[in-house]
Amino acid sequence: NGEISSKRIISVATVQPESHAIYLGLKAFKDYVEEEMGDKFEIRLFTNGVIGGNSEALELLQMGSLDLVATSGSNLEAFANEYKIFGLPYLFNDEASFRKVMNDEEFTDVIYNSTADKGIQGVAWFSNGVNNFYASKKIETPEDLKGLKIRVQSSEANVKLVQGFDAAAVVMAYGEVYTALQNGVIDAGTNPEMALVDMKHGEVAKYYSRTEHQIFTDMLVANTDFLDSLTVEERQIFQEGFKLSSQVSNEAWDKRISEVTKEATEMGVEFITVDKQLFEEMQKPVKEALLVSNPELQALYEKIQQIQN
Amino acid sequence: MGKVKRIMDKVLSAACAALLSFMTLLATYQVISRYVFSSPSTMSEDLLSYSFVWVSLLGTALVFGQKDHMNLSILSDRLVGVNKFVLSIFTELLIMFIAIIVFLFGGTQVVGVGAIQISPTLNISMDWIYIVLPISGVLIVIYNCINIIQLIQQFNESKKEGIL
Amino acid sequence: MSVAVTAGLLIFFTIVILLLLGIPIGIGLIVASILAITQVLGFSAAVPSSALKMFQGINIFTLLAIPFFILAGNIMNKGGIAVRLINLATALTGRIPGSLAQTNVVANMLFGSVSGSGTAAVSAMGSIMGPIQKKEGYDENFTAAINIATAPTGLLIPPSTALITYALVSGGTSVAALFLGGIIPGILWGISCMVVAFFYAKKKGYVGKKQITLNEFFKVALDAIPSLLLIIIVVFGIVGGIFTATEGSAIAVVYSLLLSTIFYKTINLKELYVILIDSAKLSAIIMFLIGSSNIMAWVMSFTGIPDMMANLILGISDNPIIILLAINILLLFVGTFMDLTPAILIFTPILLPVCLALGMTPLHFGIMLTFNLCIGTITPPVGNILFAGIKVSSVKLEKVMPQILKFYVAIVVVLILVTYFPWFSTFLPSLAGLS
Ligand code: NA
Ligand code: NA
């Protein structure tokens, strides 16, 4: 309990709260490693972003203040272009295809190693759900999106995607979205179902349309110096722990999604099934343009198509 | 010494005034672009935040030069002569210490981390943004040196005049 | 001794000593933080991390409202906009003892609530109301104290980013319920300070002397219309969803600038340049403190100080009334050293389970927690609103503190009500069917 000892302290940070699937995954990792090597290592988990926001935590990781960081893949775009691939609209057929691709080690090795020269090594991935649109009005066809002000996280792909639907993209921090939806600074948001309940966006946006336009991934990344300092046996045990964290988190995620859908329905949110083809059709030029402007993604893109089809 | 300080004050003040004006225009443009051109500018939010950090840290250096940062002056108001002199020198040295290790050394390392990172919205390398940390560190150290020299000069003069 | 205890003692004593020596507060916070963090991190990781924390503590979009509202406040002052508004306020309330101070409280509740930033409120109101109250013969330390003491009310009265932060960390408490729940405690905070100000002003004889005629009143009101329009544009722009609070602060700058340069012709280019520099310097002073306290918040959580303190406090009793009292004392102590947002992020997960076990609802706990930590924004050595308020009024911390003390007492009385009577937090939400 914080006594000074010879144990090596491994600091792990996430912006998620303790109720989140990722935390449960990290907790399983902690328990596993401490059970195997509790005499040598103590794993400290920092939740809720108390150590720093997403990109800040990655910088602290590079400086050696943190050993492991669970973060969204889009935050890694600043370090490696490979992560931009997940921003492509309708990249995966559906969530099952997404997981099939992410379970292909040949593919994930490319992703994991893409940031290694920056001192950041990918070690595990976490399912982060499917991005859909939600608003205070029904979105059933692409025409319904026309002219809406839609909040996105700042990235070229997100802005192009929204503009591809003839809507206006508004870049805004996640924490401001609730008030912005409430007073009409924005008309719609795009997030997995969690946002309805965890951020209470369901109180101010009553229609959730399953357009499934993007599937992002969350990542667990490590400081390369930390990994290099481990012996072969220690590394082996950590590797098992990373794999376990991914499994536990993904199972918890699926469970949470069904709970959240139920809770949101009780909040009065209506879930709308749409004809995905119509939306996908409109995004084809956007997808192609992004691949043309980022030619280095072409090989990865083909690899994904080959795995999922 | 006084002249160097006056020039630094002038340049830094002008930079701060320019940045603050720029920020006001940019924030207004952000609102207008959303309504008039109905295409929001994706970079203005980050550009605003970074300008804000710049104006804050350059301003921090300027204020250290003028010894106007928030403090408690219960003790320093009561001290006179040598004691007051020693405390003032200690204060300047402690500020210089932090400016060197955190702003200058730490800041240089932050720039190093930023150099391998591309800002997703501005599409420039982050070291150009973080460089304000070592810049303000250098400025604070120069101000500390000037302040110390001036403190010594004042102390010697008052000693000569026999006030002490 | 555990790392957390050593780090905690190091921080505490270093800060106390350096503060008493008159070292700039921000420097004191950084020195203390670096001494403490080297307990767990090597120097080579600690130093760049601290620099990054300084940068990122300022690199927050919503903080932009602070320089903008300071700038707008200064322009309103020099441009004669503020004085017209105050003339109107005095015409309406002139006979009440301390009417200018009372106006300041109401303005803080409205302004802080709309801008969502207590620091922005305290800066704008301090620069507007301060000089006028001084002219009317009010003690400048009292003026600064009432401004500071009531600026945090806007953090409780919706919209409130603090409550949104709590909603997220607490695992999804309804934001709408929290927003409604914050209203009564926030207003009570303001009213309790107004009562204190009333009696103080009565004792000191701060009473409007002359009664004005209806004719004069209309003249004052007419004169204030363009200035009133500023408030209307900003408030309705934010509430009506035309722009965010941060953008609204920039709009306030542009409007007050146009009004004073083109319409009133009270500010020329040279004066504007001076106003810009003064505003930049004032916000730099505040931002340096915010950056420094961000370093300290990081060090505290990284060394495990919050867990250590919570364990210490929660172990003392199993009587619910005592535990709640202990939690409040803990939070007041935390609030003295830690800024609002990091404290909410860190202490919600630690204390919420304990309070749920005592039978509190997440809504009631959230309001109590936020109310308590809001007090921390006006206590030294880490108190952004306190320091902004002091700087903007050009007074001294040691002179203002005795004046603020009586307001602390009033606010803590309200805190006790909010803690032990859930009604204050839950009445409005339950009226709306939200709790
Ligand atoms: Na508010
Ligand atoms: Na405080």
Tell me the layout of helices and strands:
The complex is a heterotrimer of chains A (309), B (164) and C (435).
Chain A: E1 8-14, H1 21-37, E2 41-46, H2 54-63, E3 68-72, H3 95-102, H4 105-113, E4 120-135, E5 149-152, H5 156-164, E6 168-171, H6 177-183, E7 188-191, H7 194-198, E8 207-223, H8 224-228, H9 232-267, E9 270-273, H10 276-293, H11 298-308
Parallel strand pairs in A: 1-2, 1-3, 5-6, 8-9
Antiparallel strand pairs in A: 3-8, 4-7, 4-8
Chain B: H1 2-35, H2 44-65, H3 74-78, H4 81-114, H5 127-130, H6 132-160
Chain C: H1 3-21, H2 25-37, H3 43-58, H4 65-78, H5 81-93, H6 99-115, H7 118-135, H8 140-150, H9 153-156, H10 161-169, H11 175-204, H12 214-239, H13 245-263, H14 269-302, H15 305-314, H16 320-337, H17 340-357, H18 362-376, H19 384-392, H20 397-420, H21 423-431
The structure holds sodium ion (2 copies).
Notes on the protein architecture:
By secondary structure, chain A is α/β, with parallel strands linked by helices. Chain A is 44% helix and 22% strand. In chain A, strands 1, 2, 3, 4, 7, 8 and 9 form a 7-stranded mixed β-sheet that branches. In chain A, strands 5-6 form a two-stranded parallel ribbon. In chain A, helix 5 links the parallel strand 5 and strand 6. In chain A, helix 1 (21-37) packs antiparallel against helix 9 and helix 5 crosses helix 10. Chain A is globular, with a radius of gyration of 20 Å. The mean pLDDT of chain A is 92. The longest helix of chain B is centred in the N-terminal third of the chain and has 34 residues, at 2-35. The model of chain B has no long low-confidence stretch (mean pLDDT 90). Chain B has one domain. By secondary structure, chain B is mainly α. Chain B is built from 6 helices and no strands. Chain C is mainly α and 435 residues long. Chain C folds into 2 domains: 1-59 and 286-303, no CATH class; 60-267 and 304-432, no CATH class. Chain C has helices at residues 3-21, 25-37, 43-58, 65-78, 81-93, 99-115, 118-135, 140-150, 153-156, 161-169, 175-204, 214-239, 245-263, 269-302, 305-314, 320-337, 340-357, 362-376, 384-392, 397-420, 423-431. Chain C is globular and about 70 Å long. The relative contact order of chain C is 0.15. At the B-C interface, helix 1, helix 2, helix 3 and helix 4 of B face helix 1, helix 2, helix 3, helix 4 and helix 13 of C. The complex binds sodium ion (2 copies). One sodium ion (NA) binds next to helix 9 of chain C.
